[in-house]
User: Which sequence fits this backbone?
């Protein structure tokens, strides 16, 4: 019984090591966006962040727009971008879930047999197949998370923003 308990504890210990990153994977997206667009998007996680972004957009729109400020307005004011960035949290949660085992089941039973004999049954059940396939599942989910980060870098194709054509305001500003 002691061996079984020690084996179960050793198997469950690595499952507690998977955890969420402080930024939810957003830092990598920021790096990629900075390389491609020259600016970084803001991730509006709360109502306060959204209010700050609206105030900043209002402030920027009071001045004549340059290419840089137009990109900043697009980053701040694009709901599609914010929705796209929210998918990072979902992808990261799947990665963390892949690194954890399902909770073990413990059961105790007591049976009385004839002649006053009491039999106590104890069992610990956990997902052995999940334990064996955990490294593969983690690698698959890690790759999916990285793909999500690459897809969510703030470029027009990442947030479903399609310019109407070469006469859009942004392309006009870039020609100046």
Assistant:
């Amino acid at each position: 019984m002691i061996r079984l308990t020690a084996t179960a504890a050793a198997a469950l210990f690595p499952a507690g090591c998977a955890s969420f990153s402080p930024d939810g994977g957003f830092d990598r997206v920021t790096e990629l966006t900075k390389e491609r667009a020259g600016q970084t998007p803001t991730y509006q996680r709360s109502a306060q962040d959204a209010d700050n972004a609206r105030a900043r957009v209002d402030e920027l729109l009071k001045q004549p727009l340059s290419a840089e400020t137009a990109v900043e307005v697009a980053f701040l004011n694009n709901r599609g971008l914010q929705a796209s960035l929210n998918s990072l949290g979902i992808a990261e949660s799947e990665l963390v879930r892949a690194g954890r085992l399902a909770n073990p089941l413990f059961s105790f039973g007591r049976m009385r047999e004839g002649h006053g004999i009491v039999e106590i049954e104890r069992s610990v059940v956990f997902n052995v197949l999940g334990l064996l396939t955990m490294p593969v599942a983690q690698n698959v989910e890690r790759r999916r998370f990285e793909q999500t980060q690459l897809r969510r870098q703030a470029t027009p194709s990442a947030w479903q923003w399609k310019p109407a054509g070469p006469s859009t305001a942004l392309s006009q500003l870039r020609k100046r």
Residues 157-176 have pLDDT under 50 and may be disordered. The chain is about 55% helix and 10% strand. The longest helix spans residues 128-151. The helical segments are 2-12, 26-37, 47-61, 67-77, 79-98, 128-151, 169-175.
